[in-house]
Amino acid sequence: MKKVSLLLGLIIGLFLLPVSAKASGIAMSRLYNPNSGEHFYTANTYERDNLKKAGWRYEGIGWNAPASGNPVYRLYNPNVGDHHYTLNVHERDNLKKAGWRYEGISWYSPGSGAPLYRLYNPNARTGTHHYTLYAYERDDLKKAGWRYEGIAWNAIQDSSSNYVLLNAPYINQNSAGMPMGCEAASLLQGLQLKGYAKNYNLKSFIKEMPLAADNNPNNGFAGRPDKVLNNVYQSIFPAPLANWGNKYGKAVNISGSSTATLKQELNKGNPIVVYVTLNFASPQYGTYFWGTGIDNAHVMTLDGYNSNNNTYHVSDPNAGKYWVSASKFETSYNLKKYAVAIR
Fold it and tell me: DUF5648 domain: which residues (predicted)?
């Protein structure tokens, strides 16, 4: 902010109750267990919410499935706590013979559409298989040693979502004594949502923030995050912020992205550090030795959107977690289009 004072088996259930189908199909939630490494997929919002309460990380909508079509079967291995999903009746029956518990039809696959890729981790005991709509994720896993096993099933071709809420944590920059620490707080919120930097609080995290010796925010943080300074544009811009974030996880400078691209990142379960204005107010510009800056700029974590009522959800280090109208958010974001995605 600138110049401002400032029991797995029980939970994942015996019943598969799909959510209501929308025009774009049935949204398939994707969750991740950071303890076992397993990804889990479900149309059941109650199952999704119970897993989130149990510590699973919600990663957004994996894809959209039709209300009917070719059945995809779900099986559970009670010995290792792993799930498997398959279109193949023979594979289903062979796993049942091997002691896997058949849990019914999880969703349906259209005869054609967007392919879901299946990969296998030969080194894992749980979470051995992963299924993804995204070619870049498939290719990254192949590079990491996963074995590509082909197309598992299909999704509805239009895989866009109307609603995503990743539920980023909230870190209050002011109670931490960091009135100018919105960039660091927003980055830490995004990292911790993805399971990174869990052992840090804002004070310990900021101690590792790169500082700009020349007070140029293009090179690091200019000034001090714990004190308001005159004649210094106290900020760290996206490029050095992303470089810093990469020390803890995967941070990508996606500045210049449209709001449609921001939604695509959210659909993939990726929160985004966004540069807007305080309270989404009109910009107040100032001239500095490095260029023109927005004096009432503010930074927060974007972690959701709802196309049904045209809103975005943010975790704002200065004001809490809330929904904001798309018109306010987009007008403010589009001033600079500064953004860093956490993947």
Answer: 28-155
| Pairing of the two strands 251-253 and 147-155 | unpaired
Does any domain span residue 19?
yes
Could you give the CA distance from residue 151 to residue 304 in angstroms, rounded to a whole number? 29
Domain assignment present for residue 70? The answer is: yes
Q: Which domain holds residue 152?
A: 8-160
Q: Which residues of the chain have pLDDT under 70?
A: 1-24, 158-161
What's the token pair of residue 101?
A: 């518990």
Residue 161 has what pLDDT? 60
Q: Is 2 within a domain?
A: no
Predicted model pTM = 0.59
Q: Which residues pair with 294 in a beta bridge?
A: 285
Q: How many residues does the chain have?
A: 343
Bridge-partner residues for 105, per DSSP? Answer: 73
* Together in a domain, 185 and 249: yes
Give the number of domains in the chain.
2
Whether 134 and 173 share a structural domain: no
Confidence (pLDDT) at 159: 42
The answer to whether residue 12 is domain-embedded is yes
57 & 143 share domain: yes
Q: pLDDT tens, 149-203?
A: 999 999 987 545 677 888 899 999 999 999 999 999 999 999 999 999 999 999 9
DSSP state string for 272-295:
EEEEEEGGGPPP-EEEETTEEEET
Distances (CA, A) of 331 to 120, 139, 282, 295: 44, 35, 9, 16
Give the containing element (helix H, strand E) for 49: helix 45-53
Are residues 284 and 202 both part of a single domain?
yes
Q: What does the buried/exposed string (b/e) look like for 10-41 if buried means 16 or more CB atoms within 10 Å of the residue's CB?
A: eebeeebebeebeeebbbbbbbbbeebebbbb
Structure confidence by residue, pLDDT tens digits, 13-58 = 323 333 333 436 899 999 999 998 899 999 999 999 999 999 999 9
